[in-house]
Specification:
The complex is a heterodimer of chains A (372) and B (261). By secondary structure, chain A is an alpha/beta fold. Chain A is 51% helix and 12% strand. Chain A has a four-stranded parallel beta sheet. A four-stranded parallel beta sheet of chain A has the order 6-5-7-8, with helices on both faces. In chain A, strand 3, helix 5 (103-108) and strand 4 form a beta-alpha-beta unit. Chain B starts with a strand and ends with a helix. Chain B folds into two domains: 1-91 and 239-261, ATPase, nucleotide binding domain (Nucleotidyltransferase, domain 5), CATH 3.30.420.40; 93-236, ATPase, nucleotide binding domain (Nucleotidyltransferase, domain 5, 2-Layer Sandwich), CATH 3.30.420. Chain B has 261 residues and is of the alpha/beta class. The chains are: A alpha/beta (372), B alpha/beta (261). The structure holds iron/sulfur cluster. The site of iron/sulfur cluster (SF4) has 14 residues of chain A, from helix 4, helix 5 and helix 14.
Chain lengths: 372, 261
């Protein structure tokens, strides 16, 4: 196996087995893990405490117990997170960071069924005011205080600024990776691309950065080959389960960029520079745009995606619509119309973590490839 | 030259044999679909009707939900592309296709050359599909092919508001037991099917001519309800159940001809 293949396979196995990653971290450092619910939690605070931040993104699962607690039209990802809570999957976490930028999360944050302590905090939605930064920095101060108490460690400004740098370096490496991956679709297929990105939720960030940097330089040393398939940009909350990505691959699609909440939205902006780390983290939220969870009166998501399509020379956009996600559903007609006006083709597929039948997705993707 | 299109749906199997890309010499339908004996039977029926053998076919293309399980086919193409091809062949002025089959509802927008410009499919749910009408016809004890006549006699269409087939079924049962006339209930059922399909059509962009195909297009009650909702005339494709198979047969012809040029 070449070095490149080894790195890809290691990152893939980490992304497929978060529990092992948590156990390994504990063995190595003696410290535990803190869960991070979607979306946009300041993971850096956990990192600065020396604990492992672990992303909670549900998983492919049939839902039964969660039905007792959630309406049937709650989004698919939170149905699976609730099911896993009830199965005790998250009970080894020292704490769980719980942002509440949508109604589903707001309600869910009040009925956590696991045993770990939950730290809920709010992102302000009137984001462009200076007061928003002050409010969010104060929220983060409370998060830090609660974490200090639960984890019994002191989280200094210095350590936090250091963690922000570590994270920014990871973000930079990830941006480079996604750009490179677009040039090597024969090597980085949709599933591998996703696994490499997802691994960052279960690894200490500087380790992930080191592996991704090595991967990037291995990729760069290879010749770029012509790609005869079609290139797409993915948008939505996430593109899982893997069957969906395999269907894209089987129909000759390469993912050349993404606007997924689980992927590039997390690393397309760095945390800005400054001295007060909590203020810096808060400011990131103010500067962040193009996401259904961050109020944007200008609705810049469509134009941002159109730039992405142009920049990555993509043929089309694939909308990965999380089943019953109202923020994403509300955004869709707005950017869809902008795409139509600009002549950008798009495909709508539904992301359902419970399903095991992918016939409909296959038909949609195949038809789309025939249409392009 | 003969080419064949096979469309294996969830609840029916269809075959078209095309001569020289223009003459439909066979168009057979059997009302059972993928996973059954339907595909084999409809194939044999079509061939024996015109006295041809499988080997006489220059190319065979399969489409539909069960397209990947047709061993006889040389290739498979999605039913959206085939539907567009077949409908455009029959109605060259078509701009929007509404296709309602056994378990899928699709709206397909065409460009002026008949290419697919955009399409939307229903969610994984039987509401608004042929299956929904099957269930209702059973509960109401009215044959599917009589539903349009009943609908035409409706005086005050009932409201069937549930978006779920199972709930809609109990809604219909309670209306029956409250003495609501079957005619009015059926008109309500048709409206409910129409509202699902029109939702997809609105997403796609409504542009005339609007053509309906798929098994449900044979129910004129649904066609009328769709036309009323869209406030535009709706053309029913000739022999609407075989349009995707026809499209597959045309693709097969074009591929052979393309290879021979
Ligand atoms: S943003 Fe959408 S998918 Fe995510 S928790 Fe909220 S409703 Fe669910």
């Amino acid at each position: 196996m070449s070095r490149l293949e080894t790195i890809i396979s290691e990152l893939s196995s980490i992304s497929n087995n978060p529990r092992k990653a948590m156990e390994d971290y504990k063995k190595e450092t003696g410290k535990g893990s803190v869960g991070v619910m979607p979306y946009y939690a300041p993971e850096e605070i956990i990192h600065a405490a020396g604990f492992l931040p672990v992303g909670i993104w549900g998983g492919q699962k049939s839902i039964s117990k969660a039905r007792a607690y959630l309406p049937p039209f709650a989004c698919s990802i939170m149905q699976s997170v609730m099911e896993m809570q009830l199965e005790g999957v998250y009970d080894d976490l020292e704490a769980v960071l719980f942002p509440v930028p949508c109604d589903t999360l707001k309600c869910l944050s009040q009925k956590w069924k696991g045993t770990s302590p939950v730290i809920v905090f709010t992102h302000p939605q009137n984001r462009k005011l200076e007061a928003a930064n002050k409010f969010l920095a104060e929220e983060y101060r409370l998060v830090r205080e609660k974490l200090q108490t639960i984890l019994n460690v002191k989280i200094t400004d210095e350590a936090l600024n250091q963690s922000i740098e570590t994270y920014n370096e990871n973000r930079k490496a990830m941006r480079e990776f996604t750009d490179l991956a677009a040039n090597y679709p024969q090597i980085i297929d949709p599933k591998k691309r996703h696994a490499i990105i997802k691994a960052r939720f279960f690894m200490e960030k500087s380790k992930h950065t080191a592996m991704v940097k090595e991967l990037n330089s291995e990729l760069k040393s290879l010749p770029v080959e012509a790609f005869t398939g079609k290139k797409v940009v993915l948008t939505g909350i996430m593109a899982e389960p893997n069957e969906v990505l395999d269907i894209l691959k089987d129909n000759g699609f390469a993912v050349v960029a993404d606007d997924l909440a689980q992927e590039s939205r997390l690393f397309r902006n760095d945390v800005p520079s400054g001295t007060d780390p909590l203020y810096r983290l808060a400011k990131w939220w103010q500067e962040f745009d193009g996401c259904s969870l961050a109020t944007d009166a200008k609705k810049s998501r469509g134009p941002m995606m159109m730039d992405m399509v142009k920049g990555s020379k993509a043929d089309a956009v694939v909308v990965c619509m999380m089943k019953f996600c109202d923020p994403e559903e509300f955004d869709y007609p707005i950017y869809y119309r902008q795409f139509e006006e600009a002549g950008i083709k798009s495909l709508f597929i539904e992301i359902d973590l419970e399903t095991t039948s992918f016939e409909q997705t296959k038909t949609r993707v195949q038809s789309f490839s025939e249409m392009l | 030259m003969f080419t064949m299109g096979i469309d294996i749906g969830s609840s029916s199997s269809k075959v078209v044999i095309l001569e020289d890309g223009v003459n439909i010499i066979a168009g057979e339908v059997i009302q059972i679909g993928t996973g059954s004996t339907g595909p084999k039977r409809v194939l044999d029926e079509a061939l024996s009707k015109v006295g041809l053998k499988l080997e006489d076919m220059a190319k065979i293309i399969a489409t539909g939900y069960g397209r990947s399980s047709v061993e006889e086919a040389h290739k498979q193409i999605s039913e959206i592309s085939c539907q567009a091809k077949g409908v455009f062949f029959l109605v060259p002025s078509a701009k929007l296709i509404i296709d309602i089959g056994g378990q899928d509802v699709k709206a397909i927008r065409l460009d002026s050359k008949g290419g697919v410009k955009q399409f939307f499919m229903n969610d994984k749910c039987a509401a608004g599909t042929g299956r929904f009408l099957d269930v209702m016809s059973r509960v109401l004890e009215v044959n599917l092919d009589e539903m349009a006549e009943y609908d035409a006699r409706a005086t005050e269409p009932a409201t069937v508001s549930s978006t779920c087939t199972v709930f809609a079924e109990s809604e219909v049962i309670s209306q029956l037991s409250n003495g609501v006339a079957k005619e009015n209930i059926i008109a309500g059922v048709h409206q409910s099917v129409a509202s699902k399909a029109c939702g997809l059509a609105y997403r796609c962009g409504v542009e005339e001519d609007i053509v309906m195909c798929g098994g449900v297009a044979k129910d004129l009650g649904v066609v009328r309800a769709i036309s009323k909702e869209l406030k535009k005339p709706v053309i029913v494709a000739p022999n609407p159940q075989i349009t995707a198979a026809l499209g597959a047969a045309i693709f097969a012809f074009e591929e052979v001809r393309g290879a021979n040029i």
